[in-house]
C-alpha cells in the first residue's frame, strides 16, 4: 500500500515539537555550484514550485529551487500579530491600472520559501469537473486541454499529504477527506444556522489544517492567526509539507535569490539555465531544464524580461499570450451584527462553506457562479471594512468596540478570463534594474452580476441567522492565469503537461497556467497540477 509517508515524509521531518524542519536538513542541504548543470532549476518555492521540487528530488533528479525571499523559520520569523506580518507579502514595486484596478499584496502575493501559502487562509476545495470545459458547456471562459479525471488522483494525493480536514463533500465530484472536520466557531455556527434557515446546504471544511497530530505536526490551537503564518505549523504550507522531504532527498533551496531572466540558446532553442542575483552579485546557474513557478504576476514578468533575439517580445510570447487572461476572483465580504457575542476570530478564518451556487444556473442572467465561506477579519482588516462604509471618528470607535458581536462571510466569484486583463512591463525599474510589472484589469458585466448575486445571498444567510445589521465591502482575492494552458501555441503558453510550446525544456508550474479559476481557492489545484506535471516529466524527461 502506497501510504502518505511513502510519498512524502515531511511531517516526520519536523522537530519533535513541530516548530520547524529538522535543522540538519538545511545545515546539511546539498549545495550545487553554478557551474554544475543541474537537471532542473525551479524559479519559486510556493505551491507549484515546491511540489515539483519534492517530486523530482524523490525521483533522483539534481534539482535546485530559487526564491527571492528568505527561508523562513516559523518560530523565529513569524508573529501572531496582524500588523507584524507584512514581511510575508510580496511588497516589491508593481503598477496597477485598468477600469477596475486590483490591489496587490497581502491577499494574493507571497515572498519567501512557501510562497503565498505561508499566509493563505488554509482553505483547499477542489475545482469542479465543469471548470475544465466552461466554454463548451457555458459559452464563456475557456476549455482546459485536460479534464477533471486526469487531475483527480493528484487531488487525492495532495489532500492526504497536507492533510485536509472536512465533512464529506457533496458538490462537484463528491468525495471524502482524510481528517474529520474541525469543531466550528461562533462564526461557523452562525453560517450553518443561517444557511439551514435559508434552505441552503453548507458543510464544514475543507481546511489544510491537521485535526489531531500528524507526524510531528501539532493540532490547531484555534488562535485565528492563519493569515499571519501559522507559528504552530498546524496549517499546511509547502515550507513544512513538501520542502523538508525535498531536502531529505537531495534538493537544494536557494533562498534570497532573485531570478532575473531565463537563458535560451539561440541555436538550439533550449533553456540552458537562469540568471539570478544573490547578495548583490549577478550569477548564472546552468540547468538541463528550467521550470518557472513565480505565480501570476512574476511569472509573466520574468518571461517578458527574458526577451532575446529569438524572442524579441518576451520568452514564449510569439503569439502575444504571455501576461494575458490574468484573473482575480471577486471576493465581497458581508458582515452581520448579532446581539450575542460571536468572537469570529476564534478559528481558522474559512471553516464552513457552501458551493450550492458554484455552477451556471440557466435561470440566472449570468454564467458560472460563486461559493461562500466564513471569513474572520482581524481588527485592522475589520477597521478597513468598517471605514469602507464611511464610518469615521466616534462612529468608527463604536463599531470597533462592537467587534465581538459581528460575524462575517466571504464569497469567491468566478470572474471570467479576458485577453485585455494582462501583465505588461512598465517603464519603472526595480532595485535589480528590471522593468516592474504593470497589471491592468477591468470587470465585465457578468463579473459585476455575480458579485451582486453573491452579496444578496450572504445577506440572506446572515439575516436568516438573526443579524440586526449587515454591511458589505467589495474586494478581490486570488490571482490565476497569465501563462495559461492551451491545446496549441495559438491558444496557450503551455500544454497540458505544463511544458511551454516555444521552448521544449521550459515548464511553468504555478497558478499562471490555469485557463479558468472556478469559485474555489486555487492552492490545491495548483499543487495537483504541479504533481501531475512532475509525473509526466519523470515518465518522459527527454521529450
TrEMBL record:
<dbReference type="InterPro" id="IPR036188">
    <property type="entry name" value="FAD/NAD-bd_sf"/>
</dbReference>
<dbReference type="Pfam" id="PF05199">
    <property type="entry name" value="GMC_oxred_C"/>
</dbReference>
<keyword id="KW-0274">FAD</keyword>
<feature type="domain" description="Glucose-methanol-choline oxidoreductase C-terminal">
    <location>
        <begin position="417"/>
        <end position="530"/>
    </location>
</feature>
<protein>
    <submittedName>
        <fullName>Choline dehydrogenase-like flavoprotein</fullName>
    </submittedName>
</protein>
<dbReference type="Pfam" id="PF00732">
    <property type="entry name" value="GMC_oxred_N"/>
</dbReference>
<keyword id="KW-0560">Oxidoreductase</keyword>
<dbReference type="GO" id="GO:0050660">
    <property type="term" value="F:flavin adenine dinucleotide binding"/>
</dbReference>
<dbReference type="InterPro" id="IPR000172">
    <property type="entry name" value="GMC_OxRdtase_N"/>
</dbReference>
<dbReference type="GO" id="GO:0016614">
    <property type="term" value="F:oxidoreductase activity, acting on CH-OH group of donors"/>
</dbReference>
<keyword id="KW-0285">Flavoprotein</keyword>
<dbReference type="InterPro" id="IPR007867">
    <property type="entry name" value="GMC_OxRtase_C"/>
</dbReference>
<feature type="domain" description="Glucose-methanol-choline oxidoreductase N-terminal">
    <location>
        <begin position="109"/>
        <end position="308"/>
    </location>
</feature>
<comment type="similarity">
    <text>Belongs to the GMC oxidoreductase family.</text>
</comment>
